[in-house]
Amino acid sequence: MSELKTDTRLWSSKARNLSPYVPGEQPQHDNLCKLNTNENPFPPSPKVGEAIAKILEQQADDLRLYPAPESDDLRAALAQLYDLDVNQVFVGNGSDEVLALVFASFFMKERPVLAPDISYSFYPVYAQTFGVELVQIALEEDFSIDPDTYRQPCSGIIIANPNAPTGLLLSLADIRKLASEHSNAVVVIDEAYIDFAHIKDGNSDAQVSAVSLINDCDNILVTQTFSKSRSLAGLRVGMAFGNPSLIEALTRMKNSFNSYPLDKLAQVGATASVLDIDYFEKTRQQVIDLRQSLTAELTVLDYEVLPSHANFVFVRPKDGNASAVASALREQGIIVRHFDKPRIADYLRITVGTAEQNQRLIDALKELHIDTGVTAG
Amino acid sequence: MSELKTDTRLWSSKARNLSPYVPGEQPQHDNLCKLNTNENPFPPSPKVGEAIAKILEQQADDLRLYPAPESDDLRAALAQLYDLDVNQVFVGNGSDEVLALVFASFFMKERPVLAPDISYSFYPVYAQTFGVELVQIALEEDFSIDPDTYRQPCSGIIIANPNAPTGLLLSLADIRKLASEHSNAVVVIDEAYIDFAHIKDGNSDAQVSAVSLINDCDNILVTQTFSKSRSLAGLRVGMAFGNPSLIEALTRMKNSFNSYPLDKLAQVGATASVLDIDYFEKTRQQVIDLRQSLTAELTVLDYEVLPSHANFVFVRPKDGNASAVASALREQGIIVRHFDKPRIADYLRITVGTAEQNQRLIDALKELHIDTGVTAG
Predict the structure, then answer these.
(1) CB A214 within 8 A of CB A222
(2) How far is A178 from chain B (nearest CA, A)?
(3) Where, per the database record, does this protein carry N6-(pyridoxal phosphate)lysine (chains A, B) (predicted)?
(4) Facing residue for B100 by CB, picked from A7, A14, A258
(5) Which residues on B lie below 8 Å from A104 (Cβ)?
(6) Measured on CA atoms in the order A290, A294, A296, A297, is the torsion positive or negative?
(7) Is A234 an 8 Å CB contact of chain B?
């Protein structure tokens, strides 16, 4: 952006010592197959645009007024969705803002916060921002989480579930165990991808969201987002569910940073999304189905695919040359995410796209295989 | 919201010790004359709704994608408006979020930050949130700011200009003096209301915004908002202008809290507002004109009215019984702001409304005067 040498003389030491989060790139040119930031391949519910358009038609003048500071209607819709009381629901400007407030509200304590060593890369950034010690607990060899490895003093635990970038799911029994073994710590379950998780337990679907635990466990806080399963990354809405005392802490913290984080249109659009249950159920099932077929095709191509419960797959070319595969795909206009980090440098995280996008990816991988021998090293 | 006794056991001490900001009330019933939160009496530019509606019509599906993280188009429009480089412009989720990032980026230092004793009541809240010592410098007897009273060691200075709730304006000469006398401190000028300031200097309009100083003074940072002069409180957009190194600090801090604070629709709507210069000039002049006539009428009613450069007036009933006047007005459905604080308890802050609203206020005050004798005693 600038060729100037940055003059940090007037910065706080906090500002100087930050290592900000680096989101996945958002290249803007056409015909790109963007499978790198886990956006939903389907558009949001048409009701979202309709509700916002209606507000603009009937009440555009009201944009001159401050929005509802606590997003009451949206929180009421979310409370109804999960059969909760409205005071068990918090909303913010994307789940990233919610997570920042979580770190400030519950983790700024003497003891460290525990998180998996391989997880959402914003967690270490928040820890630095809020001066919190983060202890990273190693995932097992198969990238699963063993709750027993979390048996150490802490102020809190944060786990993405399904975890990113692995896509693996932790069971509710394990989450309950973590909460009961750490009754003086807040256990945060970051469920950005939970709506794509699905487990058959005999003939019925087993519950996977920890929202079902919050009435039992007063130290579980669950965060979710509209950016993935609700196809609304562009609208910036995230939420948290927990017992009213936890929600009150978040509300106080919010009102000490920024009283009105959700604009009027985002509140209206997000509310419309929550109310359109049919569309939500239909599209999330489509993503799950597409994930299953993508997984099958990658397996045929000799990729190791972790069992994903998210809208992405975490895969390893059998020879491990993930970085070369990512570069070769990029030349074909297909962007996937490669993390140049210990333990996962041999893997690629690939967002589940539309059927066409997935086919384009598979075709490109087949070409690589045959023509360039990239995956052969 | 809840009758439960709050259990703060799991809160951080930070969360426990906060005294969150309390915004002016937003009662929802009809026929209320809401002159308490300094919203613009005019609607936003029609181009705002049109631009958002067009995006919804043509690209609603793109809400599934993350928005531009640095709001490039909006920043480019603001840069052009003020003849700046885009790397001198920062935007955030309302100027409240921008101010929070300012405190974290520039004021978290050993030395205190200085602010007027009577000013925006969010400043002491931010100081507490970020563990910054705030030294309040007394305004003069007439509520003006004397730059000489700021001659003390500090990490920064923050001044609302025009100040709130007084409406008084500090000159650019005084701001320049503050900046040069504190070359190792960031001088933040919070210009939420600057577009309503207007000074005739001979035959031409004198410049009042400190944005004109940022190329000269590398330690001046100016914040502004879309909530007042642009009638977009409902859209949550604020901005900061300063030298590229200051902007880079804010950007890094933002990316350590929340990478995508402005949703796609807010970016599009705010950009359309900036580009509609004619509408902006017309409505801000109308507000200024309405302020002048309201001031004249209040003066006739024997109210002392401070010379306001904002979209509100700060007034004192001659007998000082401001609280009783506010209560009596409320019974008539007219809400004004009374601050029960030292030095200003005898004053009321009244937002400039439409001609009709202002007339309703004046009529109600006349009635009070005659019928109830409130102001007499």
Answers:
(1) yes
(2) 15
(3) 228
(4) A258
(5) 12, 14-15
(6) positive
(7) yes
Per the structure block, which two tokens stand in for B159?
């001044």
Q: What angle do CA A261, B276, B265 make, to 5 degrees?
A: 30
pLDDT band at A2 (very low <50, low <70, confident <90, very high): very low
Q: Which among B163, B155, B148 is positioned nearest to B118, based on CA atoms?
A: B163
Residue spans of the domains in chain B: they are 26-44+278-376, 46-275
Which residue is closest to A218 within chain B, CA to CA? B10
**Residues of A with Cβ-Cβ distance to B155 under 8 angstroms:** 12
Alpha-carbon span A70 to B289, nearest angstrom: 34
The pairing of strands B303-305 and B220-225 is unpaired
**Between residues B5 and B338, which one has the greater pLDDT?**
B338
A298-316 pLDDT, tens digit per residue, is: 999 999 999 999 999 999 9
Q: Is B153 helix (H, G, I), strand (E, B) or coil?
A: coil
pLDDT of residue B1: 44
Taking only residues 83 to 122 of chain A, the set having a beta carbon closer than 8 angstroms to any beta carbon of chain B reads: 86-87, 93-94, 96-97, 100, 104-109
In sequence order, what are the residues at sequence separation of 6 or more whose Cβ sits closer than 8 angstroms to the Cβ of residue A147?
A: A174, A177, A178, A181
CB contact under 8 A, B245 and A185: no
**In chain A, % of residues over pLDDT 90:** 88
The 3-state DSSP class for residue B137 equals strand
Of B39, B61, B129, the CB nearest to A64: B39
Q: Which tokens sit at B10?
A: 């799991």
A235 CB within 8 Å of a chain B CB:
yes
User: Cβ contacts (< 8 Å) between A4 and chain B: which residues?
Assistant: 87, 244-245
* Domain covering B46-275 assigned CATH 3.40.50.150 in the classification: no
Fold of A26-44+278-376: Aspartate Aminotransferase, domain 1 (3.90.1150)
Per the CB < 8 A criterion, the answer to whether B270 and B74 are in contact is: yes
CB contact under 8 A, A66 and B26: yes
B231: left (phi over 0), alpha (psi -120 to 50) or beta: left
Q: Is A4 strand, coil or helix? A: coil
Name the residue among B44, B63, B219 with its Cβ closest to that of A48. Answer: B63
Contact between chains at B21 and A256 (C-beta distance less than 8 A): yes
Q: Determine the Cα–Cα distance for residues B53 and A47; give it in Å rounded to an integer.
A: 14
B272 pLDDT above the threshold of 80? yes
Per DSSP, the three-state class of A351 is: strand
d(CA B157, CA B151): 11
**How far is the C-alpha of B337 from the C-alpha of B348, rounded, in Å?**
6
Query: A12 to chain B: which residues are within 8 Å by CB?
Result: 104-109, 155, 249
Distance (Å) of CA A86 to CA A74, A262, A295: 10, 17, 39
* Cα-based distances in Å from A14 to A102, A107, B101, B183: 19, 17, 11, 20
Task: Dump pLDDT digits (tens) for A328-350.
Answer: 999 999 999 999 999 999 999 99
